[in-house]
């Protein structure tokens, strides 16, 4: 891929080539992956001693100040800034020389900044996922959307407590399995949708 053009184009802030249905499936896919990773981290224990536990405590403190502050600081800002850096500047900058390997390099760099033995591997998996959809869709906007939705969804427990929202949450092993099945179907939908390839341009009428 050529690296010419404006800063906006070099960062991948363009429309891209995936269908709307594929973009929606990508969002469900990142939520499925994130849910599975959260379950795995919780099963390993010591969540409170990890950076994930510290982030959860910080999010709870921010929620007492303002729900909008919580969404901005933990949902929107990291999703936009981190994707512009890792999928926009780093991955797209390396792609002309490394090709698909740029996804792995950017994903590894994304994991390393978290500097945590529990958060790092989870960030690596998410980083690789975001890198794949950004490369396949040829736009950083899709990775930004998925990242923002994923981070915002992670703030729901704090928002629920602050706003007294009646949101469903799994309280038993059966509920957890049910959520896992739904997540698995969503992830399968992502791979099905993206396997259909990019949106094809319509031929010009003559």
Chain-wise SSE layout:
Elements: H1 7-10, H2 20-44, H3 51-65, H4 67-98, H5 101-112, H6 119-137, H7 140-154, H8 156-163, H9 173-194
Helix pairs in contact: 2-6, 2-7, 2-9, 3-4, 4-5, 4-6, 4-7, 5-6, 6-7
Descriptive overview:
This protein is an all-alpha fold and 206 residues long. It contains nine helices and no strands. The protein has helices spanning 7-10, 20-44, 51-65, 67-98, 101-112, 119-137, 140-154, 156-163, 173-194. Helix 6 (119-137) runs antiparallel to helix 7. The longest helix has 32 residues, at 67-98.
Give me some keywords for this one:
9 helices, 206 residues, mainly alpha, disordered C terminus, globular
Content of β-strand: under 5%
Low-confidence stretches: 170-174, 197-206
Shape: globular
Provide mean pLDDT, rounded: 78
Radius of gyration: 18 Å
Number of helices: 9
Number of strands: 0
What would a concise description of this structure say?
By secondary structure, the chain is an all-alpha fold. The protein has 9 helices and no strands. It is globular and about 45 Å long.
């Amino acid at each position: 891929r050529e690296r010419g053009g404006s800063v906006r184009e070099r960062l991948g802030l363009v429309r891209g080539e995936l269908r709307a249905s594929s973009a929606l499936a990508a969002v469900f896919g990142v939520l499925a992956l994130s849910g599975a990773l959260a379950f795995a981290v919780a099963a390993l224990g010591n969540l409170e001693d990890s950076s994930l536990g510290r982030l959860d405590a910080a999010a709870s403190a921010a929620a007492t100040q303002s729900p909008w502050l919580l969404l901005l600081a933990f949902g929107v800002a990291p999703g936009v800034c981190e994707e512009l850096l890792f999928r926009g500047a780093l991955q797209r900058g390396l792609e002309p020389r490394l090709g698909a390997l740029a996804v792995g390099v950017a994903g590894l760099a994304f994991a390393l900044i978290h500097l945590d033995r529990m958060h790092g591997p989870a960030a690596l998996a998410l980083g690789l996922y975001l890198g794949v959809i950004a490369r396949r869709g040829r736009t950083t906007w899709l990775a930004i959307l998925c990242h923002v939705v994923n981070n915002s969804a992670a703030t729901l427990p704090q928002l629920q407590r602050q706003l007294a929202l009646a949101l469903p949450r799994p309280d038993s092993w059966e509920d957890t399995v049910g959520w896992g099945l739904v997540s698995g179907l969503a992830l399968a939908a992502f791979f099905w949708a993206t396997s259909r390839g990019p949106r094809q341009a319509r031929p010009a009428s003559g």
